[in-house]
Amino acid sequence: MLKEKVAKLLNQQVNKEFFSAYLYLDFSNYYYDHGLEGFGNWYRIQAQEERDHAMLFVQYLQNNGEKVVLESVEKPTVPLSDAKTVLKEGLKHERYVTALIHTIYDAAYGEKDFRTMQFLDWFVKEQGEEETNVENLLKRFELFGDDPKSLYLLDNELAARTYTPPSLVL
Length: 170
Ligand code: MG
Prior knowledge:
single chain; mainly alpha; 5 helices; 75% helix; 0% strand; elongated; binds magnesium ion
């Protein structure tokens, strides 16, 4: 069994990860609606990854004999005004999720819950990568997004992304 505070935060994270999946599906739909199918594909894969993250938190809680309580998933209300704003919102959201992971890590550290810290290590690294990926995408959009031909090429490149399940196995 885990300490109550840590278990509660891990449980909340299940909901946060499902919300991330929902948010990124919303982003994906926006891009498909606006003819940027590569960006749509890229964010659809992000949504799949977030769902997998949620499932990893579920599995970890269950592996530790904890009951998982599912809450309602919030409706995404992030304004999707243009293709670049969506990426900016994506980066903002990843930074928020990083802060959430760090909060759980901090609680686990305070409780000397080394097992949870070890479980979260993968997520700490993953968040670093996620932030870098969106930062790079945003940078490239700022460089090429205003030129239709370049945007077309970038969109084509993103269309080639395929889904890979998370490397963390519990
Ligand atoms: Mg995640």
